Amino acid sequence: MSQRILIAAATLLELKPLFDQLELPFPADVDWHGWNGLSIRGMVTGAGIPMTTYQLGKTLVLDPPDLLIHIGISGAQPGRFSIGQCVRVAEERFADIGAETADGGFLDMFKLKLWDGDHSMWTNRSLRPKYPVGSDLDLPAATAITVNTIPGSRKTIEEMGIRYEYDLESMEGAAVFQVALGEDIPFICLRGISNAIEPRNRAAWDIQAALESVTAETIQFLNLIQAKVASDVNILLKNRDF
After folding, report:
1. Domains delineated in the chain
2. Which end of the chain, N or C, is surrounded by fewer C-beta atoms within 10 Å?
3. 41, 32 contact by CB (below 8 A)
4. Are strands 187-196 and 67-76 parallel, antiparallel or unpaired?
5. Are 164 and 156 in contact (CB under 8 A)?
6. Hey, which residues does 72 pair with through a beta bridge?
7. Which stretches of the chain score pLDDT less than 50?
């Protein structure tokens, strides 16, 4: 049986270049398509935490893959990575779900005692992959936060930096981690860096470079999986080490 790999992204913009390179039909959110001995399905979840949680969660429950690959573009802290570089997200957290205090401070869901930090899903109140998927890729590992509102002012960016130590920000990553961990699906999240985290300046973004890098690294990873499957599928399945 061929390995079933679900490749998800928030937007069509982030997913279609990959399927064009793989020469697979698109949209591909219904059927599984054969590619070099693997079965691949694409999925556009929609942007943001609610859409990602619903669309991805439904699929992982009703039609679970052997592996989930989530791809997209992201902003990064200045100086951490280069624009156009691809990184592997090793840790995620929800950054702005909680309550504001009277003096303008912030209480996250753990401080409010509405989430249990001792739950097996959490590691020091953050989300980390359970399986070593992609650990042999020559990509830097990044710590990310997931927000409902992308910070666009210097004040908000500075406040978020005080609240958390992080490399990247996105609007979906932690939702992907949570759903995949909850359903015990091996997963990897790859992000192409499109811009520095700074006061909003779309003119400085390089979305094309970010898309090209994450597409190229995803194809390299798929080739690696294909080679491993061909060499020893039993070990692959047992260890969930893609």
Report:
1. 4-239 (3.40.50.1580)
2. N
3. yes
4. parallel
5. no
6. 191
7. 233-238
Question: What is the rounded CA–CA span in Å between residue 125 and residue 117?
Answer: 5
- Using CA atoms, how far apart are residues 146 and 178, in angstroms rounded to an integer? 11
Beta bridge partners of 94: 146
- Distance of alpha carbon 213 from alpha carbon 206, whole angstroms: 11
Measured CA distances, 100 to 23, 106, 145 (Å) = 48, 5, 18
Q: What DSSP character marks residue 2?
A: P
pLDDT (tens digit per residue) in 151-201: 999 999 999 999 999 999 999 999 999 999 999 999 999 999 999 999 999
23: amino acid identity, one letter: E
Over residues 198-220, the pLDDT tens digits come to: 999 999 999 999 999 999 999 99
Which is nearest to 205 in space by CA: 217, 216, 192, 218?
A: 192
Paired tokens of 3: 């390995």
